[in-house]
Request: fold
Amino acid sequence: MSDVTDVLKQYSKDVVKTIEENLSVIEPQDLQDACLYLTKAGGKMLRPALTLISAEAVGGKKEDALKTAAALELIHTFSLIHDDIMDDDDMRRGMPSVHKVWDEPVAILAGDTLFSKAFEMVIASKEENAHPANVANALATVADACVKICEGQASDMSFEGNFDVKEDEYSEMIFKKTGALIAAATKAGAIMGGADDETVQALYEYGRMIGTAFQIQDDYLDVISDEKDLGKPVGSDIAKGKMTLMVVKALAESEGEDHERLLEILKEENSSQENIHEAIDLFNKYGSIEYAHNLALENVDGAKKVLEILPDSEAKQMLIDLADFVIDRSS
Reply:
């Protein structure tokens, strides 16, 4: 685990430097500060690291994918800022959210600026002799992910208060909301690394599967972690009545009094810890926690299998280790 964390830190240095250089021209200063705020707050930087490692794994140089990697981190940051506004979340990465430090109008502008800068940065790859076709394909990949993120967020919002969501609908939502940008990161890295179409598609599938596993693991950690590791109260998704894979599965499997009780808890505003633990007991009774964990494992195993198309290398091993990291992490 520590090795993977060290790898992410190592790759993040160049990404942070690239982001800071490209955002340093933004005016006025308040807007620039708001744009840089979450980057300076830290974070795993999983997506840009995957972009750079994917470029290396297909035989390219990480420098060729650096601006695209930084662009994907900007898209991720943009989505976090806007999510926090929509969800009225006060904290992000252990610090007050952007809209709490400044205000909502500045936060919206910061998100919009990051979104625009991301596309500018991919296009700027041409300045470093990247092949124009690769730049165009990477740009299309980033744009497609942005549309999917918005679709996923809209679906997630439409699921609020809807307890008839089916598993395939939920799976589609988490792919779009979380998996699409991770899949774009690995695909764009492969493109900028000069991979052929078959390899590019394989890296996309790898990203799609670890992205799906990443979100399922987030849901899983919400009910099996302790508060100290998680950094927020255990069962906070249950308290919000949020649809997760475990909720979808438990509602599909339960019946009678158990089904009605679970619905009652999910519909409550700010459920008590006692009721949250009761819901978790029902998840266990109907096997939904184990089911979610196993599905995350299946996605990670599938992701590692598609990497067989790549020649053995240090970068390929990093991708394998990062797939395991997705489900081995505790937060």
Q: What stands out?
A: DSSP finds 16 helices and two strands in the chain. The CA atoms of residues 289 and 297 lie 13 Å apart. The first helix runs from residue 2 to 23.
